[in-house]
Recover the amino acids of this structure.
């Protein structure tokens, strides 16, 4: 009877050497005549412990990490195959505080099995939602999504059920479901982890969406920076098709659903839904004016349901356990859970799924353990590059769409990038304009030109030239960009800039550079 | 003047995608995977096969950061410049790497050995700074670690 050892194949774990470790374990086991079966799972999401090696023992899975190639021999010497003590040991995986204290609805299966093992997926609760949905009235499915309180997890926080209802009620010869997997925000990797670690869950959510809205074709638009996620999703689609869950007759229901995986090509703006549609149509990712909304006139002019990966990935559990179950988590109008991502200068980085209402401090300090460098916390950018930089006295804010918006910040996709005292906030403001200039689709003047002028003006401030006037100019420019931009690219670039000015004005107080003596 | 090889590659790739205009990004990706870049002559073939104007195809190719019009170096390094990687020292990591080679971002060295480009998020934000070396993702980078990986990739 082989001893099973799990080594993650998630790209973060692999980037830290997981593939070499898997090979190393196999080689040493063979050399020592030990019967070991190395299997590859998805990541548990405790990225600070990756590569996390788990051994199946009689008491459950025992974890060791972060493992480096040079540690493998010592693991064998410490009899890790029977859960032996080792300096990298953490005892039972299920008891690791970082994981135990989470509320995992979407990431319930993270790290349990081979992501492409459909039997294991079903055994761990997968497909229950889809099976329920196929027996339901389409209107009833949409009502479930509405009642759950699920809001768009891409960042806009728009009630998902309303989008579903609009597409369901639209009359058209062809409707589409398009999954936005262009997770380009710095500090976010939850979508990537879903696609790499539990792809069936996303596909299940999309099939339910197609069935409920009458869409027979689906697209997943995955950014090209995620090659492993692209490969995993393509492979998962083949497995689901073979099992009859994708194709002309989904689960014997008579309804068809065909899913296509499409690659982005390095444009951040294609994370904006209408830009993504243009890209899916083979065009430059220019943003479309709304109305018409994509739910009425979307892909190829047809009614299209566009949702983020996490939104669609939340659907199976809602259909499996009911709207009330999901709605029970959370606070205010932010119902359910969000898979927060702790990133940047963070001691214990990774994926933390919690009900809305958890405080920023609990995430950064409680789960995250503070900064990686050990130097004092200075700021965190929440919600990606278009999100606000918060000050230390905002740490007790609850993660809730309305609470953060009220404080001039944004939940967004739940990414939290931590910075220590070494950060120069005027440089970060300059970068906000720089990034906008690089990634702007170019359609509207406030964004296209504003970003460049903003960067130039920040350069003057950084050089100590007419600081007061230039700061006033930045503020005025930010107002124009906020009011006049077609989408959030130009419209929210002012958010990080103005928050940096508001909370860290001292960084903008630059002395003029001394003129070099000739 | 294009070689017959290059012309038939673009045409056959378009055909494999059913000559659908909406598959243009997939087609350009496939051409680049095959050739290492998107040859200018391929644009005309693609336009013809998809019934688009050459301007349309040129516009799409140049809009997206991924597509290159010339071949990359033996080693391609894409270093992340986004916020999470910045919080862990990416900017100075990039500066050091470029200064050592007298290069700027987006360039290929004169000897054709290395191309250095900026990336804006590789999805490895809890293990910053991150980069890809010939497509392989690396994490928790230091200047030394990056140099070692680049040297290994160049062998």
């Amino acid at each position: 009877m082989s001893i099973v050892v799990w080594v993650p194949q998630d790209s973060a774990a692999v980037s830290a050497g997981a593939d070499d470790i898997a090979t190393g374990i196999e080689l040493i086991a063979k050399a020592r005549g030990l019967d070991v079966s190395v299997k590859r799972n998805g990541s548990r999401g405790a990225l600070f412990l990756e590569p996390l090696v788990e051994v199946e023992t009689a008491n459950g899975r025992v974890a060791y990490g972060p493992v480096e190639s040079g540690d493998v021999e010592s693991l064998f010497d410490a009899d890790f195959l029977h859960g032996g003590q080792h300096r990298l040991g953490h005892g039972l995986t299920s008891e690791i505080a970082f994981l135990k204290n989470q509320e995992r609805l979407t990431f319930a299966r993270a790290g349990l099995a081979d992501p492409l093992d459909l039997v294991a997926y079903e055994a761990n609760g997968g497909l229950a939602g889809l099976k329920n949905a196929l027996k339901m009235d389409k209107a009833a499915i949409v009502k479930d999504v509405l009642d759950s309180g699920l809001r768009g997890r891409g960042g806009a926080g728009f009630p998902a059920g309303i989008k579903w209802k609009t597409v369901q009620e639209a009359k058209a010869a062809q409707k589409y479901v398009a999954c936005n997997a262009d997770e380009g925000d710095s500090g976010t990797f939850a979508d990537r982890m879903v696609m790499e670690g539990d792809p069936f869950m996303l596909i299940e959510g999309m099939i339910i969406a197609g069935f409920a809205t009458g869409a027979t074709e689906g697209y997943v638009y995955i950014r090209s920076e995620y090659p492993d996620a692209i490969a995993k999703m393509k492979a998962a689609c083949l497995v689901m098709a073979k099992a009859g869950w994708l194709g002309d007759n989904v689960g014997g229901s008579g309804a068809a659903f065909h899913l296509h995986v499409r690659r982005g090509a390095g444009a951040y703006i294609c994370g904006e839904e209408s830009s993504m549609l243009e890209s899916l149509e083979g065009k430059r990712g220019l943003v479309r004016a709304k109305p018409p909304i994509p739910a009425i006139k979307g892909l190829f002019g047809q009614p299209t349901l566009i949702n983020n990966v996490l939104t669609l990935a939340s659907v199976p559990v809602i259909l499996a356990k009911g709207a009330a179950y999901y709605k029970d988590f959370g606070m205010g109008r932010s119902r359910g859970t969000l898979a927060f991502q702790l990133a940047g200068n963070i001691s214990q980085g990774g994926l933390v799924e919690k009900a809305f209402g958890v405080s920023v401090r609990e995430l950064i300090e409680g789960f995250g353990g503070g900064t990686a460098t050990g130097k004092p916390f200075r700021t965190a950018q929440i919600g990606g590059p278009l999100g606000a930089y918060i000050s230390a006295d905002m740490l007790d804010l609850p993660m809730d769409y309305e609470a953060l918006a009220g404080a001039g910040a944004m939940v967004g996709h739940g990414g939290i990038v931590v910075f220590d005292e070494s950060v120069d906030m005027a440089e970060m403001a300059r970068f906000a304009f720089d990034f906008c200039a690089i990634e702007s689709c170019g359609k509207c003047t406030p964004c296209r030109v504003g970003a460049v002028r903003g960067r130039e003006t920040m350069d003057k401030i950084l050089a100590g030239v007419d600081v007061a006037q230039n700061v006033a100019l930045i503020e005025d420019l930010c107002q124009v960009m906020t009011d006049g931009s077609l989408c959030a690219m130009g419209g929210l670039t002012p958010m990080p800039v103005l928050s940096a000015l508001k909370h860290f004005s001292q960084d903008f107080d630059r002395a003029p550079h001394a003129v070099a003596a000739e | 003047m294009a070689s017959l090889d290059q012309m038939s590659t673009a045409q056959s790739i378009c055909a494999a995608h059913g000559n659908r205009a909406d598959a243009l990004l997939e087609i350009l990706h496939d051409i680049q995977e095959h050739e290492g870049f998107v040859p200018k002559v391929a644009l005309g073939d693609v336009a013809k096969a998809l019934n688009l104007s050459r301007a349309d195809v040129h516009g799409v190719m140049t809009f997206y950061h991924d597509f290159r019009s010339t071949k990359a170096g033996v080693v391609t390094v894409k270093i992340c410049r986004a916020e999470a990687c910045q919080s862990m020292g990416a900017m100075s990591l990039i500066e050091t790497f470029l200064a050592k080679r007298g290069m700027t971002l987006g360039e290929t060295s004169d000897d054709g050995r290395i191309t250095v480009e900026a990336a804006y998020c590789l999805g490895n934000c809890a293990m910053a700074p991150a980069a890809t070396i010939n497509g392989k993702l690396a994490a928790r980078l230091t200047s030394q670690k990056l140099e070692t990986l680049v040297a290994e990739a160049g062998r």
